[in-house]
Amino acid sequence: MDEKAETDEIRGTTQGTAPVPLSVLDLVTVGAGRTATDALRTSVEIARLAESRGFHRYWVAEHHSMPGVASSSPAVILAHLAAHTSRIRLGSGGVMLPNHAPLVIAEQFGTLEAMAPGRIDLGLGRAPGTDGATAAALRRTQRLNEGADDFPEQLAELTRFLDDDFPDGHPYARIHAVPGPVQATSPGGVQSPHRPPVWLLGSSGFSARLAGVLGLPFAFAHHFSAQNTIPALDLYRESFRPSEVLDAPYALIGVSALATDDEREARRQVLAAALNMVRLRTGRPGLVPTPEEAEAYEFSPMEREFIDSWNSNVIHGTADEVRAGLDDLQKRTGADELMITGNAHGGDVRLRSYELIADAYGFRKDQPADA
Q1: Cβ-Cβ contacts under 8 Å for 284 (sequence gap 6 or more)
Q2: DSSP 3-state of 199
């Protein structure tokens, strides 16, 4: 694969007055009184808005057994989004590799690449994306640490399937991920020059170091592991070795940010999202509550402490306040790209937030392409 083409598929272009490219992370959240169908329709609306306004990429994240998060099947959602967009990059943020056979992921993302050539990213994580019991059901084993410990080997296997380059004599040498490069070697075969670039995702130092050693782009989950952001990015940069994929480090960070027309409304929405996290962290996952429910909720001192800590890392307020917060965060971390996730009860609030952020940075105002 041409190195320049691969690099261009990783590095974004800065729009308007933003300090770096801005992208979107979608958890496909389901609010109380709403359905998964409503949430997925909102995802299409946000993806089309993000494309028309100049956001660089749109990722969805794998989660399981969480009523308020309808993104258990990233590949299925991405196929749906690909049918409703034409330019924006689409990807997983991420697929949890230990939950799946590498060949299955290579087949799924080879299919996505065939649907949307040159627009697909494959972000990979090593966490289960759920609780231990659900992870056991997904992996058909009680030895849950085994998958995480084997992550480098699983990654190497997946990469070989994507590139179709197992060496002669390897047990998988005659097995091919289709759609994929093998089609170009068949009589009369023509294959796309694109292959989904692999990203490593993390919330600690393990994937940061591995991404650096392998010369891969790295995405860090600042939105739920803020205290580890700078150490992980430093480790990634220090460990980085140039590769055929990248000649220099490229790191994005996930950022929780919500802009509203009124500062008070931002606080209300953020409180509701935080209550949802309280319930999740205490083993009571549910739909995202309404702001009214959150305002009426009697938080215990421990819950209030958690809320204050959690919301201290959520950039929220008016568009100008959010822009200032994003600018400051990028300056402090040196991130090459900011991937914004806006969690709120209503899809209309999330949609409006991305619109306000785009306006604050002077992003273009193209009309969404017909899809």
Answers
A1: none
A2: strand
Q: What is the DSSP letter of 16?
A: T
Structure-token pair, residue 100? 């799946």
pLDDT at residue number 315: 98
Q: Tell me the C-alpha distance between 22 and 13, whole Å.
A: 9
Q: Which residues pair with 261 in a beta bridge?
A: none
Q: Which residue type occupies 190?
A: V
Q: CA 88 to CA 22: how far, in whole Å?
A: 12
Radius of gyration of the chain (CA): 20
CB atoms within 10 A of CB 348: 11
Instruction: Report which secondary-structure segment, H or E, holds 23.
Output: strand 22-26
More confidently predicted of 188 and 75: 75
The closest alpha carbon to 135, from 199, 64, 68, belongs to 64
pLDDT in the model for residue 60? 97
CA distance 354 to 15: 14
Closest listed residue to residue 267, CA positions, set 322, 227, 326, 221: 322
Separation CA 291–CA 346 (nearest Å)? 10
Both tokens assigned to 182: 């093998």
Cα 275 to Cα 290: distance, rounded to the nearest angstrom: 10
Nearest-angstrom CA–CA distance, 136 and 138? 5
What is the per-residue DSSP string for 83-143? HH-SSSEEEEEEEEGGGS-HHHHHHHHHHHHHHSTT-EEEEEE-S-SS-HHHHHHHHT-S-
DSSP H helices, 312-346, are 319-333
Length of the chain: 371
pLDDT tens profile 74-111: 999 999 999 999 999 999 998 999 989 999 999 999 99
What single letter denotes the amino acid at residue 183? Q
* Contacts of residue 94, Cβ cutoff 8 Å, sequence gap at least 6: 59, 61, 62, 74, 122, 123, 124, 125, 199, 201, 219
Name the DSSP class of 22.
E
CA nearest neighbour of 253 among 307, 322, 313: 313
Task: For residue 288, list its beta bridge partners.
Answer: 31
